[in-house]
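Example A, followed by Example B.
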Amino acid sequence: MPPRWAVTGLAGAYAASYAIGLLITAMLLRRRLEGRLDGKRLCRTYGKLTASALAAGALGWFVARSCSSTVTSTTWAPALGLVAGGLTMLLVFVLSARILKISELRSLPGLG
C-alpha cells in the first residue's frame, strides 16, 4: 500500500476488526444466553446505524472538500474543511438516525 493511503488502510483494518469482534461477541453471547439473543433487531439497528454513518460520511466529505477548495488561504482552508465537514457529519448522522427511528438515540441526553 502506498504511504499516502496508509491512514485509509488503517481505517479499513479497524472497521474489519470491529466487524469480526462483533461477530465473535454475538456468537459468545448467543451461547451464554442460550439462544435468546434478538439477532434480527440487532442486525436492523446496526444496518440503520451503518446507513446513517455512510450518509453522514459522504455528505461530510463533500462539504469539507467544497469548503477547503473555496478558501484561498492555505492556513485556514484545512481548518474550515475540518470544522464544516465535522459539523455536517454530526448533524446528518443525528438527523438520519432520527428519521430511521433508531431507538437507542432516545437514551442520549437532549435527543430523546
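Example B, a separate protein, is given below in the same form.
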Amino acid sequence: MTSRLPMLPVAAAGALLTVLASGPAGAAGPECAAGPVGVWSATVTVDGMSPHSSEIAFGEDGTACLSTPASTGRGTWTASGGDRFTYRVKEVFTGDGASGWLVTDQKAVRSGAVFTSSGQSKIYDAQGREVATKQAVIKATRKSATAPDCHA
C-alpha cells in the first residue's frame, strides 16, 4: 500500500536526514513477531555520515510514523513476502529554523526483533524544490510489539 503524502513545508532542525520504515500488517502480541508491527528504536546512517537515532512505529493498518529530536514523519508500509517489507515516509523538519522535508523509500528485512533497511531519500526545501538525493541505511531493534495510532 503506497499513498501520496502532501508536501507541507515546516520549520525544522538542521540538515538532519531520517529514514523510516513500515511493513506488513500483523496482529499485536506474539503473533506479530513475524511482521514489523510495533515500536522500533533505530540508528540511521545517511551517505556514510555519523549515525543518528530515531523511533519508528508501524501500525497494524499499514501506517508508519517516526520521530527524532529534529523531525517527525508519517507514511505507509507494505509486506513484500516472508520477512521483507517496504515503506515510504515523509519526514518534516521541526526545529531550529531549518525548513523542508524529505521523502524516503526503504526496503527492509526483519530477523526476529531486528530489521535493517536501505533506500533513497529525496530532500526538499521549504518551497518544494528537490535539493538532494541521499542513500540511507537503518538498523532497528523492536521496543514493543504494539504501536500507537499515528493517524493524528
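On Example B: The CA atoms of residues 114 and 141 lie 5 Å apart.
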